[in-house]
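User: For a reading group we're discussing how well predicted structures match intuition. Take IclR family transcriptional regulator. Before you show the prediction, I'll give you the sequence so everyone sees exactly what went in.
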Amino acid sequence: MTSENSNTLNSVEAACDVLDGLQELGGAGVTELAKEVNYSKSTVHRQLSTLFEKEYVVKDDGVYRLSLRYLDMAAHVRSEIENYDVIKKEVDNLAEETGEVAQFATEEHGRVVYLYKSKGKSGVETSSNVGTREFLHSTSLGKSILAQMPRDQVEYVIDRHGMPTKTNNTVTEYEELVDELEEIEERGYALDNEENVTGLRCVAAPVLDGDIILGSVSVSGPSRRVKGDRFRDDLPEAVIRTANIIQLNSKFS
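Assistant: Thanks. Here is the predicted 3D structure of IclR family transcriptional regulator, as structure tokens, for the group to look at:
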């Protein structure tokens, strides 16, 4: 699983793969983890021993797990996000207003990264959580961000991550995606019509600071409830208004 990039260190790459594998498995022994990350057991054991000594993992009866050290790192990363308090307040208001799940996300390394999530009184559980990474092409959050990017940057993202099929409705052709991005840029919001999760629709609007893409705000709900005028008019109006408030506070903070 080593990289062909000459600027990377194989040992560091292996450590990252081991940590990703532990997160994916929710904890594992050496044998199970070696199979998951496709490294030899000796390599995985050396990595885990080093990570244990540096307190990045813990061990209990032969099972390794990520340590609580990541909570401190996560808190630090969140403290670095400008206007986080404004984002939280406005996303909470959006969830309360719509009764659905409202979220704020940004782009990092060509993926959507969820920064805050709030659940309204009728909101349903979704697979996304703070820190979850998703593809840009299959989510309304991602598409609203892609629509603000130069086309060469969009092409770079798609070349790097591809356009995998998430549901029967996922757009998997690049030219079709570009056509949709042009529509999104013109109308100011993006739609996810069960393209990332079957049975779930989502509406999102970008949050900008001039030419800088700060992120995107969204509302998600079950397709049986998010439909018709609510999907095409009411929720878009709500997310655009919320995006504008966050954007305005960002300019004058």
